[in-house]
Specification:
Layout lengths: L1 H25 L7 H26 L16 E8 L5 H12 L5 E7 L6 H10 L2 E6 L21 H11 L7 E2 L10 E5 L5 E2 L1 H7 L5 E3 L2 E4 L2 E9 L2 E6 L15 E4 H6 L14 H6 L9 E2 L1 H4 L4 E2 L9 H8 L11
Helix pairs in contact: 3-4
Keywords: Glycoprotein, Golgi apparatus, Manganese, Membrane, Metal-binding, Signal-anchor, Transferase, Transmembrane, Transmembrane helix
EC number: 2.4.1.135
Main location: Golgi
Length: 335
Amino acid sequence: MKLKLKNVFLAYFLVSIAGLLYALVQLGQPCDCLSPLRAAAEQLRQKDLRISQLQADLRRPPPVPAQPPEPEALPTIYVITPTYARLVQKAELVRLSQTLSLVPRVHWVLVEDAESPTPLVSGLLAASGLLFTHLAVLTPKAQRLREGEPGWVRPRGVEQRNKALDWLRGRGGAVGGEKDPPPPGTQGVVYFADDDNTYSRELFKEMRWTRGVSVWPVGLVGGLRFEGPQVQDGRVVGFHTAWEPTRPFPLDMAGFAVALPLLLAKPNAQFDATAPRGYLESSLLSHLVDPKDLEPRAANCTQVLVWHTRTEKPKMKQEEQLQRQGQGSDPAIEV
């Protein structure tokens, strides 16, 4: 028994010595743990660098925003508006004038359907603060709406728009405001803005740099939520319309603008008073451009920035009753 214990002790001693010698040898070998340590150190260094960059950005002054062009450098927008006497005329002209007052570099060409300028319109223009030209031309009796006829039976504002085109071309005299037409070489845009529509001022930014004929959708027109060009790859490929889609230009009057040099280069381009219903816009545009060359605006014609609104005709039954009694509203108070 004693002999066996002695042998076990000896074996244990020899194994321990061998293990100790192995450990002493390993102390002199390179450690495999250096690679993970190096990777962790690199991550810390990158984080420190990113923090330093962010701190430098915070100390740096903000960039100077791009300055818009000075108003004098902008092409002038000639806004042509036909108007006629009615109870809501002043209300609608005031609304439009205040929209235009938000637009830089605009020239309002207001054309009355009258033999001569009326005090109401002359006074409104003088008080508007806008650069304006006041014109007047009476619609011939044969072209005027007859009693009880709906407004769509005959085109309206034809003589007035053509009078404005004549003035731009130096062929018509003004009755008030700026009487001289733009000199040759003037860069500008012509827009036909009826007095009963509603306009976003953003629309005028869209049309400002028109090169030929620019187009966009019009809301609440043609029995649709909106009507306007269909665009693919930045080009007009069709029109969203429900009425007479085969028209050359199925556009509303508020849905396009024309570069002034293009209009002046086409002296015979004007609106045709005998054009069939819905073809009035086409009668002008067909002289100016091909449909494929129209310039889509308003985010490729996906934004509506003008609406074909109409003021409800006021009901005057109580006024008429008071007038019959000799107690009507004071006619000296302008409405």
